[in-house]
Amino acid sequence: MVKRPNMLNRDDDGAGEAQAPDPGLMRRLPLFTDILEAAYRRIPRRVGGYFLGGADSEGGLAENCAAFQRIRLVPRYGVDLSQRTSRADLFGRTYSAPIGVAPLGYSSAIWPGSEQALATAAQRANVPYITSMFAIEPLDNIIRYAPDVAWMQLYYFKDKQPSLDVIERAKRAGYKVLVLTVDSPVYSKRTRDHRNGMQFPPVVTPSLLAEVAMTPRWSLEYLKRPHPLPGNLMPYTLDPQGGTKALQEFLARTQIEAIGLGEFAEVRKAWPGTLVVKGLQHPKDAEAAVAAGADGIIVSNHGGRQFDAAPAAIDSLPAIVDAAGGKVPVMLDSGVRSGLDVVRALVRGAHFCFAGRPFLATCAAAGDAGRGARHAMGLFHDEIATALGQLGAASPAALRGDRAREWR
Fold first, then answer.
1. Active site includes 302?
2. Which one is catalytic: 227, 282, 302, 351?
3. pTM above 0.90?
4. CATH classification number, 30-405, choose in 3.40.190.10, 3.20.20.70, 3.40.50.300, 3.30.365.10
5. Is the sign of the CA dihedral 93, 345, 257, 49 positive or negative?
6. Is the pLDDT of residue 122 over 90?
């Protein structure tokens, strides 16, 4: 295999450098679509169903990806690309590319060790890593792996004290960006989980043990890190040493709240840093968030896991960009499966993109969380650089919002 030159320049602040894809993994894992299939085979069926599944009929899950594929971009040639870079500026920092790791709940239970691996790889590659409030690793650990690039996700619970305490812990730990996720006001039916008998945290049953026996690599990794419970939440249970039962009781008692302007004002008052609202798809919601003090918006339908009839995030993006009116950066999550998808989103006005499943799936498909995380970073960087070159764009900023590039 001929190794392609890395066309991405080192970042101005020297905090990290883009990585190339793993040459050995490129033979069997050249695309994230290949990676998702390979990952599913390595993970116990019910765990894989939770990771890859969506709400209800999963039509929204499929539409997220299909909508990207409908976007055709017109290339430009004869353009000077001698200074081409994939670097992108966001909230006063220069990142190596306009891609980051979305918050992934329970991800180190889905593939053991993935949170540390992805956070470490994100720091090395200089791209954002959003720490899930439902992460297995506590937020204090993750920011040690990614001190310059870690952001913190926040859900607002019905019992608001744990949420407000997480804000204080994030401040003390040194996080600079808080991502308030608002698109989970009620529980949504996850059909695969019902069919598979899946729940989080998992309950050990004979059928689960049978599935585990069919996935020896996952089992081996799991044995190195047993008892995967969310480290950010266990301190708020009635019995922090009570394991699965204590967590289930906490989640049943606390519940995620449908957040209104009053709750948003509490979060805004408590958090002095950059506040991003994640999960918006309606222009009026974007206008309200900006008016209430949001510093950024992530357009998302929760990866198709919350509301099956929601439009694809990429189709919601242009209206949110217009509603924001250039006052705050607008980012995109949900359905991103390649660096080319990132560039498609840039053309529709996104400042930045985030992906979840592709990153975690690569940890699993590689059978080695660290190697997989680095390969995923390299794939995204390489594909973004290639797409920019084909489009005759010297940088992501040069392409952002250039709707004339989209073939109609």
1. yes
2. 302
3. yes
4. 3.20.20.70
5. negative
6. yes
